[in-house]
Amino acid sequence: MATPFTSLTFTVRRCEPELVAPAKPTPHECKLLSDIDDQESLRFQIPVIQFYRHNPSMQGKDPAKIIREALAKALVFYYPFAGRLREGPNRKLMVDCTGEGVLFIEADADVTLEQFGDELHPPFPCFDELLYDVPGSEGMLNCPLLLIQITRMKCGGFIFAVRLNHVMSDGAGLKQLVSAVGEMARGMVTSSIPPVWERHLLDAGDPPRVMFTHHEYDEVEGIITPPDNMVQRAFFFGPNEISSLRRLLPRHLRQCSKFELLTACLWRCRTVAINPDPDDEVRMMCIANTRSKFNPPLPSGYYGNAFVFPAAKTTARKLFRNPLGYAVELVKQAKASVTEEYVKSVSSLMVIRDKQLHFPVVRSFLISDVTSFGFGDVDYGWGKAVFGGPAKALGPISFLIQSKDKNGEVGTLVSICLPAPAMESFAKELDNILKGQPVEDVGKPIKISSAM
Fold first, then answer.
1. Active site residue: 280, 377, 379, 405, which one?
2. What residues contact residue 89 under an 8 Å CB cut-off, 6+ apart?
3. Which residue of 22, 206, 264, 278 has the lowest C-beta tally within 10 Å?
4. DSSP element (H, E) containing 148
5. Active site residue 214
6. Could you tell me what percent of the chain has a pLDDT over 70?
7. 3 state SS of 13
8. Cα separation of 153 and 156, whole Å?
9. How far, CA to CA in Å, does 331 sit from each of 291, 313, 315, 323, 447?
């Protein structure tokens, strides 16, 4: 169930970071981000990682060289990524398409893919060496919008790690970009999915109108756990675990989606782990891709942020004492609330509040399902990745990632970030649920602060 810890260490030798600019001249213009893109909640960096095996047919070919050249070609089409963010009145973000380029690092590691073990999963050993944080590069404004590191391994395989400024794209948009790099690396001269900017499609109306109550932006007071007290673990859910969870639901809910089932289970386990006061409100926010919610749907090449994160809230007492189906119903209701009008309402709220709103962190859980994005399907010439997806959980944000266990069974990997004592409680509670055991009474004394 819980993936094992690893104590693997190795040395990474890096070349000096360089800027990779578009291979051809590109328009020098200023492009506005959407009112969804530039909200405070998305002003952070998100890391994604891919692992590739040695491919005998690519013997003698350097992945760093091939990907660097392919990246330059892809940036001709995705040239805003080669620009820099600026901020205008009312904190409105825009891309100054300067063509300066994205940061690129070439590296070598004295490790083989096999040494990472039978199961690749977050947290990855020596991750800070596999995606080096170039000093001064992590800012929102006037900094490169992408940081890519290609690390060759002793076995002939390599690791592709990328850090994205989230205001530029969501997971689907990033997958579209790296897929284009893969196509260029394999010899294509244009992207199979032409990129579409059109960020105005997700802007607020004129005048802006907030038509819904957005609990995902409630202001919640509480103590936030210092980041140096956090630990990362991953949990694998195969067919057996999913079946065990479904058996806990009433018959009318057993056809719920795997996402709804897992989100409900994880939310409850995480709430037990942080041990809030029974009468405290707790929140679950789920990433909802809105591309198909529009009429007509957003263009297939749209690579901006096209999601919202509707919230479900209840008290800790109700979440603990009700059956798992209670949490599943709350998740389903949150998902069902998302419409084109809901997205416009979020955009309007951002405009009215000058982008200042941020999703609550205290006693909150935000989950993103990236299983359908296909980060593992990206081929730079060496075949599909052995693993592809977000490199770690980010505080209260967890990811559902398609993966395989050591026996080759396909399932869902979940990355979790919690304070160390809470992580032990989380794992215990999850094990109890999978065994069909009841949760403990919520009247127990608080042991750790309800930070997440």
1. 379
2. none
3. 206
4. strand 146-153
5. no
6. 94
7. strand
8. 6
9. 20, 9, 14, 14, 28
CA distances for 332 relative to 248, 318, 359, angstroms: 16, 17, 20
Residue 259 token pair: 């996402």
Give the tokens for residue 30. Answer: 């200023």
Kindly report the number of other CB atoms within 10 A of residue 401's CB atom: 25
Cβ pair 105, 90 in contact under 8 A:
no
Which residues of 179-256 form beta strands (DSSP E)?
A: 230-237
**From CA 16, how far away is CA 232, in angstroms rounded?**
29
Query: What is the Cα–Cα distance from 10 to 219, expressed in whole angstroms?
Result: 43
Q: Is the pLDDT of residue 440 over 80?
A: no
Closest of 37, 128, 21, 129 to residue 83, by C-alpha: 21
To the question of pTM greater than 0.85 for the whole model, the response is yes
Q: For position 452, what pLDDT does the model report?
A: 42
The C-alpha atoms of residue 169 and residue 176 are separated, in whole angstroms, by: 10
H-helix or E-strand spanning residue 327 = helix 324-336
Q: Where are the alpha helices (DSSP H) in 89-220?
A: 127-130, 171-185
Amino acid at 175: K
* pLDDT above 80 (res 451): no
103 - beta bridge partners? Answer: 19, 147
Q: How many residues in the chain?
A: 452
Going 394 to 396 to 401 to 405, the CA torsion angle's sign is positive
Which ranges of 78-197 would DSSP assign to H, the alpha helix? 127-130, 171-185
Instruction: Name residue 146's beta-bridge partners.
Output: 164
Q: Given 166, 170, 203, 214, which residue is catalytic? A: 166
Report yes or no: 361 and 449 within 8 Å, Cβ to Cβ. Answer: no
Instruction: Give the number of other CB atoms < 10 A from CB of residue 402.
Output: 20
Asked if 269 contacts 261 with a C-beta cutoff of 8 angstroms, the reply is no
Orientation of helix 239-246 relative to helix 258-274, angle to 10°: 80
CB 315 within 8 A of CB 281: yes
Nearest to 224 by CA among 360, 317, 123: 360
Distance CA 159, CA 150 (A): 6
Q: State the number of CA atoms in the 13 A half-sphere of 248 facing the CB.
A: 23
Radius of gyration of the chain (CA): 22
Cα distance between residue 419 and residue 228, in whole Å: 9
Active site residue 200: no
